[in-house]
Amino acid sequence: MSKKKTNFQIACERAEDAIRSTNKKIEYLGCCANDLYERLNSIQELFDKIRNVPSEKRTTYRKLKEVRLNWKFQAEKIERDYKTAAVKNAGGTAAGIGTGIVVAAFGPSAAMGIATTFGVASTGTAISALSGAAATNAALAWLGGGALALGGGGMAAGNALLAFAGPAGLAIAGAALVGSGLMVWKNRSEQKKLEDVYTLISRRDAKTYELASVEIDERIIRIKNENALLADAMERIQSFGLNYEEMSLAQQYELGSYVNLMESSTQLLVNPILGLQPKYTEIDFDQFVSTEDSLWASYHTQYKKVLISLANLFYKIDLDMPEIRLLVHSFKKNKEFLNAMEIEKKEMDQTLLKSAILCLRHKYGKE
Fold it and tell me: Contact at 8 Å (CB) between 174 and 309?
């Protein structure tokens, strides 16, 4: 007779299932995004052939081309960085990274889906809380979380794992440590108390990823619809001729509407999936530090990476002092966490965890 699962085990499994499902949808999102990217390039070629197009229209769709190229570049960078880290952590082979995932299985479609998910292609103004290197780190950290969800040990992609990203990887790693039997407890109640914390985190995360999956589904539908509209637009444009000045006024207006269509379609590539954005960002942290005296500001800045990660982990989770003490104890035992955060065991103390709670209270108050 099988042993009845605890609430902790059920919550962890639900979160892992939600992450696994979301990752699959992210990869499919990448396939759809790539189709849209190719279609946009094709319609761009048609526009480029038309002579005497007003400069403002030409400038607009050329800027859109730059945005798309940046998106493609970021997707390719995510793929390269992932495979480089995977080979490094596989001891120089491309067989895998101790996660049950074959490196070759991570291809362009997944990278493009992650690029869209995190909105890593900037238009010059911030379209999400992350940009540049931080966005790439978030994408890589998401992969680390996904790998953990599939039952492996996670990927140590340099400093990227868990840094500046959502709490998926850290939550699963922590839950795994709690349930592994590797930690020594004075009594069963201590383990139960910590399990209750991770049960709340897992339930929160499961709901987050389930809602994000709905958002991804909606994005995929929109991309497919825009792709169909672009295909129709291409047929129309080819019937207009190659000289803008010889087109009818109606055709010129229609051509302008297609420039607007290209702009809205490009935004579907680069705008992030909001449900998977970090709840606490570098911007939030910098605003928090700016309100402090120099001594505390210096201390918190020293531990910026770990504080951002902890703030994301404990978003909407109320902790009392006994729970804080137990969590600190568990983090001290978690070598993966300490290595990723670049801190020593002795540095992981109650002051650090309380500071993460202060970071959240500064942004959200006592929700």
Answer: no
